[in-house]
Design brief:
This protein is α/β, with parallel strands linked by helices. The chain has a single domain, classed as 3-Layer(aba) Sandwich (Uracil-DNA Glycosylase, subunit E), CATH 3.40.470. Helices cover 38% and strands 17% of the residues. The protein has nine helices and eleven strands. The chain has a three-stranded parallel sheet with strand order 3-2-7. The protein starts with 6 loop residues before the first helix and ends with a helix. Bound molecules: uracil.
Length: 221
């Protein structure tokens, strides 16, 4: 299922991001009330082109991990904390022609951009209503748990906590009244940059599989 966001929230985001280097718009995708909501950082170039979240190189790594614990693209909800591709502008000289060409590579979203999309993400989270939130990497983790949270410390473990939500009274966040179940993971791109992380990431996903299994056993008692 491709989600349709409320037009008033989309208009607010448009205003808050005016003039920023952001392009495209990739909606979240998946069923409502899923067991897992996977939360990335922002779409990359591939996602911008095909409009499917996590459909590029990181997405392929992610799907292998998802499938390793018995889920699939159809059974999980996939989104990110920013809905547009953040890019920078680089002017580089083409080695063959000697001409200067403009490139627009992906970049990490700024904290301000993550905050600009926060009301949209909050709405999406309530609408989708997943059992467990899986932030992938520091950008998603810190959006939910604040700037001191670190994926190197929190990956591969279950956490029950309030999360940050956009504070309607200001430009920052406030803590949710509700407690959420989270299971932070390294971003799948981390494996692409550092293959030595692969066994750790695979073990983290196995732990998530076990956690979900135990959660359902408790619920069925
Ligand atoms: N990285 C993300 O965080 N999300 C995507 O959809 C692709 C890459």
């Amino acid at each position: 299922m491709i989600i349709e966001y409320p037009t008033d929230l989309l208009a607010d985001v448009k205003k808050a991001t005016a003039g920023r280097r952001l392009t495209g718009f990739t909606p979240g995708q998946g069923p409502r009330q899923p067991e897992l909501m996977l939360i990335g950082e922002a779409p990359g170039r591939h996602e911008e082109q095909v409009n499917i979240p996590f459909s590029g190189a990181s997405g392929q790594e992610l799907m292998k991990l998802v499938e390793s614990i018995g889920y699939s693209r159809q059974t999980v909800y996939i989104t990110s904390v920013v809905r547009q591709r953040p890019y920078s502008i680089k002017r580089v000289r083409d080695k063959k022609t000697g001409q200067v060409v403009e490139k627009t590579p992906n970049r990490t979203p700024t904290k301000g951009e993550v905050r600009a999309f926060a009301p949209l993400f909050d709405w999406e989270l309530h609408y989708v209503d997943p059992q467990v939130l899986v932030p992938l990497g520091n950008t998603a983790l810190q959006r939910l748990l604040g700037p001191q949270a670190n994926i190197g410390q929190l990956h591969g473990q279950a956490i029950t906590s309030a999360i940050q939500e956009a504070d309607p009274a200001g430009k920052g966040y406030r803590w949710s009244k509700r407690q959420y179940r989270l299971f932070p993971m390294y971003h799948p791109a981390a494996i692409l940059y550092a293959r030595r992380l692969q066994p750790t990431v695979e073990a983290d996903w196995q732990r998530l599989g076990q956690f979900m299994h135990n959660l359902h056993r408790q619920e069925n008692k």
